[in-house]
Amino acid sequence: MSRLRQALQRVLGVAPAPGALRSRTIDTNFSIIKEGDRVILHGKQPSLSKSLKRGEKLQTPRGAVEHDSIIGKRVWDTVQSRKGLSLRVSLPTLEEYVALTPRLVTPIYPQDANLIASLLDIHVNTPAAGEIQPTMEILESGTGHGSLTLHLARAIHAANTTPPPRPLRSQIKYLEGRVIRPSEKDTEQTEEKPAEPIADPAQEEWDAWRAQRNAIIHTVDVSPKFSVLAEKNVRGFRRGIYAGNVDFYVGPVENWIAQQKQQRKKTGLASLTGGNPVEPFLSHVILDMPSSNLRIPHVTPMLKRDGLLVVFMPSITQIGECLQLIRDQRLPLVQEKVIELGSGISGGRTWDVRFATKKSGADPASWAAPSDTESVTPAEVDEQSAASDTASEVSTTEEPPKEGESVLVCRPKVGVRIQGGGFVAVWRRIEDR
Question: Gene3D superfamilies, alphabetically (predicted)?
Answer without folding.
Answer: 3.10.330.20, Vaccinia Virus protein VP39
